[in-house]
Amino acid sequence: MAHNLNKPNSSVARSNNRYKLMGLLTLCGAQLGQAAEMKIGVSLSIPPYVIQETNSGLELELLNQALAVKGHTASIQYLPLARTFHELREGKLDGIINIKDGMLDNVFYSNVAITYQNCAISLEANHFTINNIDDLNNKQVVSFQRASSLLGEEFAKMAKANSGYQEQARQVQQVYMLMKHRADVVVMDKNIFKYYLKQAYLEGKLTEKDSTQQAICHQIFAPTEYKFAFLSEQIRDDFNAGLKQITQDGSLVALQEKYRRLMSFENEAEVSNKLTEPKIIKNDSY
């Protein structure tokens, strides 16, 4: 039987109609001047960006502050990544964080909300020259899970050819391995590294000597920019307006400083006569 190519697929049409309905309901609330509670899907606890145990983190506070400018609040729903996409499609979520253009259809993408900076991190005492991915060959490299499929073709080739390459699901393990000299290089976001290094010291899992070794961030990867996605165009616009305001009025800088101090050893150095506050990582700007 010949198919009519001009006739829309009924399941696709129903899906599109559901998106439109859910977005319209949220939009109506916003237009009536009502503060809306947004159900926002978050897939991973990634300190310092998302700290699930305390429902905090740089990204979550940024989200809350930006939405609050227009009177909205966020209810964070922690779900596996695939499920956040499904729940958003079904209209059970109002938005999700950490997404790139084109990953989902029928949603409204915000302006860039957060930027991650993956680095190849080594210890200064090892005197490694790392200016590109090729320089990781023949080194013991420990990356975050799925890095070989996320960091580009050149990195994937290195990972496949390098017998000393491995990936860790728990990123704190990368920090332990580098600082205990069980890895030459770890590949991870620089702020995640700093957060876990500080926590490992506070929890006694790394000694003062371990923790105060000088690390170097070799920035051989381009920054990764993430947006947030919303079902409602109006809420997306409200978020963008809020993000612009907190950027201009200094709130975002204050938030970044809060988390910079959380990751630093400043307070510990102030109360200890034994610990000298180190610059945790060279070639770094927050």
TrEMBL record:
Keywords for this protein: Signal
UniProt similarity note: Belongs to the bacterial solute-binding protein 3 family.
Name assigned to this protein: Extracellular solute-binding protein, family 3
Pfam families the record matches: SBP_bac_3 (PF00497)
Residue intervals of the Solute-binding protein family 3/N-terminal domain: 37-263
Keyword Signal: yes
InterPro entries named in the record: Solute-binding_3/MltF_N
SUPFAM superfamilies recorded: Periplasmic binding protein-like II (SSF53850)
